[in-house]
Specification:
With 103 residues, the chain is an alpha+beta fold. Helix content is 51%, strand content 17%. The protein is built from 6 helices and 3 strands; from the N terminus they run ααααββααβ. The longest helix has 12 residues. InterPro entries: DciA-like.
C-alpha cells in the first residue's frame, strides 16, 4: 500500500531506451557510459585495419589516447585527427572527447 502514495515512482510504462537514459541521468553515469561505448565501438568507428593495429585505447580528461603499432598509420591518423573526431561525435555524441592523442 505504501507504493501507491510514492510521488517519485511512475505508474505508466516507459520504453526501455528512455527508462535507461533516465537511470543514467539520475546516477550521473551518462559520460562514463558514452566513454565505454566509444572504446567498445572503436573498431566500428575507424574500421578493421586501424582497429587491428591499435594496442591501447583509453580516455583521460576528455582526451582519447590511442596507441598504434604502425609508424605510417600513426602519421596518417595525426593528419586526419579532425576527421576521426567528427566520426566519434557522429557515433557516440558531442562532448565525450575533445582531443585525440596518438601514441
Amino acid at each position: 500500500m505504501a507504493y501507491e502514495n510514492n510521488p517519485g515512482r511512475k505508474k505508466e510504462a516507459a520504453p526501455l531506451e528512455s527508462a535507461f537514459k533516465e537511470l543514467l541521468k539520475a546516477y550521473r553515469l551518462e559520460g562514463k557510459f558514452q566513454e565505454n561505448l566509444l572504446i567498445n565501438s572503436w573498431g566500428d568507428i575507424v574500421g578493421k585495419t586501424i582497429s587491428s593495429r591499435t594496442n591501447g585505447l583509453f580516455i583521460k580528461e576528455k582526451k582519447l589516447y590511442v596507441r598504434i603499432s604502425s609508424g605510417p598509420l600513426k602519421k596518417e591518423l595525426l593528419l586526419n585527427r579532425s576527421k576521426i573526431l567528427l566520426l566519434i561525435e557522429e557515433h557516440v555524441g558531442q562532448g565525450v572527447v575533445e582531443d585525440l592523442v596518438i601514441l
